[in-house]
C-alpha cells in the first residue's frame, strides 16, 4: 500500500464565465511519475498553479501529506513539501549560479532570518549547494551570473533548484522546453533519479511523447479543463477519447 | 579581521578603496585636520547622512522597495530626542530614552505600514509611505504645542557635549565638548554602518536580494516575501530614526525643515542613486559628495562668479543662487554616465 502524497478533490477555478480547471479529482502516490498531457489551453499549467498556490481555487481542495492546503500561500505550501519548477525559466538573474542554489538550501534550513551572521560563513549550505551543482553539471559555472547562462544551463539550474528544495512532491512544467537534443537527456536522467526515490511523487507536464513513454508510470489527460483520462500509459494512449482529443494529432508528428 | 568587520564585502576596486579610506580618515580626524566650526559641522552632517542613506539603500538597493517615508522615520528619531530632552531635562538618560523611543516608534509605524501595504504591490507601498509621511509632516507643524510647529524645538543636551565643556588642548586643537559630541556621532555612524553592511551580507540580506530579483520565485522556494519586506522596512526605519537622533544631538534643534521636509527625501534619493544602489559603499560616497556640494558649491561659485565678472553672461550663470541648477546638471550627468552609480561604475571598470 503506497502512500498518497498529494490529492485534489473537485479542484476548480473560474475566470469570469470561463472554467479553466473543471472539478479535477486526482491523487498522486509515492514512487509514481504522472505525466499530465492535453492540448494547449487544456488547463495543465493552471492546474499546476492551483496546486502550488499561485492561483486561488474557486472550489475544491488540495491535500498535501494528508493536510488540507487549499487556503495556504505559495511559500507555506513549499515549506510543507511541494516543489515546483517553472515552464518559463524563473530564476534570480543577477545573482550567481551558486547563490541561486544556496538560497534554496538556506530556505530549507530555515536560516532566512539570520541577520548578523555572514552568509558566506554557512559553509554547510554552500557545500550542499555545490553537491547539487556537480550533479547537474553546473559546478564549473558557479560564479557566473544566471543572466549570462545559456538557455539550456538555465533549465538545468531550474531543475537543480527543485532538487535543492528536496520536496515530497516534485512538479515539472515542460522541463526540457527549448533545450537542444544533446542537453535534454541530462534533465531527463535527473528526473529518472528523482523518480527512483520511492518516497517522492513526480508530476510532469510534457508534450514530447518519447519523454512520456520513457518516464511516466501513469498519464492523466486534461481536456477543456476537465479530467478526460487517467491510467497507465499504454492504456491511455490507446483510448479513443485521447486519440481523438489530443494524441491523434500529435501521433502523426512522431 | 578587516574582512570580518566588512562582512566579507570588500570594496572590490582599488580606486574605491582609496576613496573610502580618504573619507574615513578625513571624518575620523576632522576636528584635527580642519579648522573652525563649519568643517566640523559639515563632517557631522556627512556622517549622519551616510547612515541615513545607507539605511535607505537597505530598502531600495537591496530590497527593491521604494519608500517616501524615510524622512519621517528620521524625524521620529530627532523629535524623540528633542521631546525627551525637554520633558526629562538635559541629560544622557534623556538622549537614550529619546533615541530608543524614537526608534521604537519608527519600527511600530514601519510594521503597520508594511503589513498593511506590502502584501499588495510595491507601488502601493510607495504611495502609502508618501501619504503617511505627508500626514505626519502636517501633524507636526499643526500640533505646535507639543512639537513647536514650524519653528521647531530647541533644547539642552548634556553640558559635556557642548562647547562650554573645555578639556584642554591636543595637537594644537582645543578639545571641547563639541568635539566629543562629534565623536559620538562619528562612532555611532561607523558602528551602525558596519552593522548594516553585515545585515546586507547575512542570509537575510541574500533573501532580500532574491526578492528584489524575483519575488515570485522567492515565494515559490519558501520565503514569505511580505515578512522579509516588512522586516527590512522596520530595520531601515529604526536605523533612520537613530540617524535622526544623532542629528538632534548634534544640532540641539529639530524642526520640520531639517528633518521632515520632502526636500531631504529627494536629497536621500539623489545620494543613493549617485553613489550606487545596492552597494552600501555608495551611501558613503553619495552622501559625502552631496553634502560637500551642498555646503561648498555656493562658495565656490561665488568666487568663480567674481573671478569671471569681466565676462558677459558667465558670472550670471555662476551666481551662487544658481547652485541648485548646477547640482541638477551634475545629477543628470552622473545618472547618464554612471547608471549604476559611482560605486557600480568603479567595480565594473575593474571587471572589464
UniProtKB/TrEMBL annotation, chain A:
The keyword Nucleotide-binding applies. It comes from the Bacteria. The keyword Hydrolase applies. The lineage of its organism: Bacteria, Pseudomonadati, Pseudomonadota, Alphaproteobacteria, Rhodobacterales. InterPro entries: AAA+_ATPase (IPR003593), ABC_AA/LPS_Transport (IPR051120), ABC_transporter-like_ATP-bd (IPR003439), ABC_transporter-like_CS (IPR017871), BCA_ABC_TP_C (IPR032823), P-loop_NTPase (IPR027417). GO terms for molecular function: ATP binding; ATP hydrolysis activity. PANTHER family: ABC TRANSPORTER ATP-BINDING PROTEIN (PTHR45772:SF3), CONSERVED COMPONENT OF ABC TRANSPORTER FOR NATURAL AMINO ACIDS-RELATED (PTHR45772). Its EC number is 3.6.3.-. This is Lipopolysaccharide export system ATP-binding protein LptB.
From TrEMBL, chain B:
It is a multi-pass membrane protein. Its main location: membrane. It comes from the Bacteria. InterPro entries: ABC_transp_permease, LivM-like. One of its GO terms (molecular function) is branched-chain amino acid transmembrane transporter activity. Keywords: Cell membrane, Membrane, Transmembrane, Transmembrane helix. It is found in: Cell membrane. The chain crosses the membrane at residues 14-34, 95-116, 122-140, 180-200, 226-254, 266-293, 323-344. GO terms for cellular component: plasma membrane. Coiled coil: none annotated. PANTHER family: ABC TRANSPORTER ATP-BINDING PROTEIN, HIGH-AFFINITY BRANCHED-CHAIN AMINO ACID TRANSPORT SYSTEM PERMEASE. This is Leucine/isoleucine/valine transporter permease subunit. The lineage of its organism: Bacteria, Pseudomonadati, Pseudomonadota, Alphaproteobacteria, Rhodobacterales.
Amino acid at each position: 500500500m503506497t502512500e498518497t502524497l498529494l490529492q485534489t478533490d473537485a479542484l476548480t477555478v473560474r475566470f469570469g464565465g470561463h472554467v479553466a480547471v473543471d472539478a479535477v479529482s486526482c491523487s498522486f502516490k509515492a514512487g509514481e511519475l504522472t505525466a499530465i498531457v492535453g492540448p494547449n489551453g487544456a488547463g495543465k499549467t493552471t492546474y499546476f498553479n492551483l496546486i502550488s498556490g499561485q492561483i486561488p481555487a474557486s472550489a475544491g481542495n488540495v491535500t498535501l501529506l494528508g493536510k488540507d492546503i487549499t487556503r495556504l500561500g505559495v511559500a507555506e505550501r513549499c515549506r510543507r513539501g511541494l516543489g515546483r519548477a517553472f515552464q518559463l525559466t524563473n530564476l534570480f538573474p543577477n545573482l550567481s549560479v551558486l547563490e541561486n542554489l544556496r538560497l534554496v538550501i538556506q530556505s530549507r534550513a530555515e536560516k532566512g532570518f539570520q541577520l548578523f551572521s555572514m552568509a558566506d560563513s554557512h559553509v554547510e549550505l554552500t557545500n550542499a549547494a555545490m553537491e547539487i551543482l556537480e550533479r547537474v553539471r553546473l559546478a564549473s559555472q558557479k560564479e557566473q551570473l544566471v543572466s549570462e547562462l545559456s538557455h539550456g544551463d538555465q533549465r538545468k539550474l531550474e531543475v537543480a533548484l527543485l532538487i535543492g528544495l528536496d520536496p515530497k512532491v516534485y512538479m515539472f512544467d515542460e522541463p526540457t522546453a527549448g533545450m537542444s537534443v544533446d542537453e535534454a537527456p541530462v534533465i531527463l536522467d535527473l528526473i529518472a533519479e528523482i523518480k527512483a526515490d520511492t518516497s517522492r511523487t513526480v508530476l510532469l507536464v510534457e508534450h514530447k511523447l518519447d519523454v512520456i513513454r520513457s518516464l511516466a508510470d501513469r498519464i492523466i489527460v486534461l481536456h477543456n479543463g476537465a479530467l478526460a483520462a487517467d491510467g497507465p500509459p499504454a492504456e491511455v494512449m490507446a483510448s479513443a477519447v485521447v486519440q481523438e482529443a489530443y494524441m491523434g494529432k500529435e501521433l502523426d508528428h512522431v | 579581521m578587516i574582512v570580518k568587520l566588512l562582512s566579507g564585502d570588500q570594496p572590490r576596486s582599488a580606486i574605491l578603496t582609496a576613496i573610502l579610506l580618504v573619507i574615513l580618515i578625513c571624518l575620523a580626524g576632522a576636528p584635527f585636520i580642519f579648522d573652525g566650526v563649519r568643517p566640523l559641522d559639515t563632517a557631522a552632517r556627512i556622517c549622519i547622512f551616510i547612515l541615513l542613506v545607507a539605511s535607505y539603500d537597505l530598502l531600495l538597493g537591496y530590497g527593491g522597495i521604494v519608500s517616501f517615508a524615510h524622512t519621517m522615520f528620521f524625524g521620529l528619531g530627532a523629535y524623540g530626542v528633542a521631546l525627551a530632552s525637554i520633558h526629562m531635562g538635559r541629560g544622557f538618560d534623556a538622549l537614550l530614552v529619546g533615541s530608543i523611543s524614537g526608534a521604537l516608534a519608527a519600527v511600530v509605524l514601519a510594521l503597520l505600514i508594511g503589513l498593511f501595504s506590502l502584501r499588495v504591490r510595491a507601488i502601493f507601498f510607495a504611495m502609502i509611505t508618501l501619504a503617511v509621511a505627508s500626514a505626519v509632516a502636517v501633524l507636526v507643524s499643526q500640533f505646535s504645542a507639543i512639537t513647536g510647529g514650524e519653528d521647531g524645538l530647541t533644547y539642552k543636551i548634556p553640558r559635556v557635549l557642548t562647547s562650554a565643556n573645555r578639556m584642554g588642548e591636543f595637537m594644537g586643537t582645543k578639545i571641547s565638548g563639541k568635539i566629543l559630541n562629534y565623536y559620538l556621532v562619528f562612532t555611532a555612524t561607523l558602528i551602525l554602518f558596519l552593522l548594516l553592511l553585515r545585515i546586507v551580507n547575512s542570509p537575510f540580506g541574500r533573501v532580500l536580494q532574491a526578492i528584489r530579483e524575483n519575488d515570485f520565485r522567492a515565494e515559490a522556494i519558501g520565503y514569505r516575501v511580505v515578512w522579509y519586506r516588512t522586516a527590512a522596512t522596520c530595520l531601515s526605519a529604526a536605523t533612520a530614526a537613530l540617524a535622526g537622533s544623532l542629528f538632534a544631538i548634534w544640532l540641539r534643534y529639530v524642526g520640520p525643515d531639517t528633518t521632515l521636509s520632502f526636500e531631504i527625501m529627494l536629497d536621500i534619493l539623489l545620494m543613493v542613486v549617485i553613489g550606487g544602489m545596492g552597494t552600501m559603499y555608495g551611501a558613503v560616497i553619495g552622501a559625502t559628495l552631496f553634502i560637500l556640494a551642498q555646503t561648498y558649491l555656493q562658495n565656490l561659485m561665488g568666487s568663480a562668479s567674481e573671478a569671471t565678472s569681466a565676462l558677459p553672461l558667465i558670472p550670471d550663470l555662476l551666481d551662487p543662487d544658481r547652485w541648485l541648477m548646477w547640482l541638477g546638471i551634475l545629477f543628470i550627468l552622473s545618472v547618464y554616465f554612471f547608471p549604476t552609480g559611482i560605486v557600480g561604475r568603479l567595480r565594473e571598470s575593474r571587471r572589464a
